[in-house]
Amino acid sequence: MKSLQGKVALVTGASRGIGAEIALALARVGAKVVVNYVQNQSAADNVCAEILKHHGECIAVQANVSDPAAVKMLFAQSISHFGSIDLLINNAGILLFKEITNIQDDEFDRIIDINFKSVFYALREASTKISDNGRVVTISSTVTRMMLPKYGAYAATKAAVEQLTRTFAREMGTRGITANIVSPGPVDTELFRVGKTIQDIERMSAMAALGRLGKVDDIAQVVLFLVSDEARWINGQNIAINGGII
Question: I need a labelling partner for 220 at 20 to 30 A (CA). Which of 90, 189, 207, 240 fits?
């Protein structure tokens, strides 16, 4: 894979899990990285410290991406520091693992705000701020293709951001900008384990043809490819990364 030297990548929700691994992977091939976080400054600083240790460039920026004013600030601060944004990874999100009948109004509002509105605000800002020939990748989920109990609200938000991203790809194409989606299956992260029993986790591990949970690097490597020049003709697509679940 060619270097991303000189490119600036903004990764939302990058302090832990998949987002952190994506940030590290981008830095390893030369990208300057903006690590966005909302609460855990220590974890975000650790990601940047790892990047800096290997002579990369990184800043951590606190912003609640479900707030449109905060998203504007995030883009402005990123551009002020690095001069541009070339790559946007929409990764921030939460999981609600609950049957529809038991979901409270405030829980539903929160997952809509964080999983859906955040991507809308980021894409809207990117439409005028991302560089020509830029790359956008939105993290969705394989659950949009399944009928898994307790994933209804979560799957709905992910299906919505898939459609937003595909439309964005069409609208931005004349500027050479691509926008794609990756849909991981179960990945062994802190977020994935929320609300699940050991039996839940074992059952979901067994669903993959490869017989295991995904690892964060499994996802990061596909994102790395999609933002590279080798993927310049891939646009508006949704790539499942799930070990053969579906």
Answer: 207
